[in-house]
Amino acid sequence: MRGWLKLTVGLVVVSGLLVGADRIAVGLAEDEAADQLVSSGRLSQRPQVSIEGFPFLTQVLSMKLDDVRLSADDLVVGDGRQQVELHSFKAKLSGVEVSGSFTSATVARGSGDGLITYADLAKLLPEASKLVPGAGRLVPGGTRLSLSYGGPGKVKASLGPVAVGEGAVHNEGNTVTADGFQLSGIASMLNGVTNQAIGPVSFTLNDLPAGLKLASAVPQPDGLRLTFSGTGIKLIG
After folding, report:
1. pTM score, whole prediction
2. CA dihedral in degrees (230, 231, 236, 237; nearest 10)?
């Protein structure tokens, strides 16, 4: 009976050591992956990396990670002219094939999302003088349209205190477009026209995080919610 007890205790101790070693190994791998994502230029800020699944060491032996989660805040994205912040970015990467030193990684499938505030969106839009006839009579030169939430799938636009109209938001690839704006009210009277169409206004985002592509752009009360997806992504290396 004592022999079985010693064996049981021994197995528990060994199991605990193996679990501890596995958790240490996954922690080191997560830190290394976070560093590589920044140095490779795939993310502008060091992310939190979580490698899911247990045990980790068996995944390492196969050189394939089933489920990797990324999260970061205030990432930098832009259109090549202006950079803005992408907030609350989160991504799930599946089927991640890695090298032994995590210097290369390829993702079978990936998805994620993040938020650009309306204040930052204005920086990506053309100057109002290029969009609105007679805009110089409304606002100083260099002024851009400002956007706010207009309901499901829509945004409201304004030039300073002057409401310009409401438009729909959609995307094609990495290009986001808002269209359907019409001058109305004070804006129409000052321009001497009625129901004058504006736009459309659009911008194209490049260098999206983790090599993902833009899947959708959805207006929300606090900004434009972007979702991302991709397959066969060269994540590192």
Report:
1. 0.81
2. -130
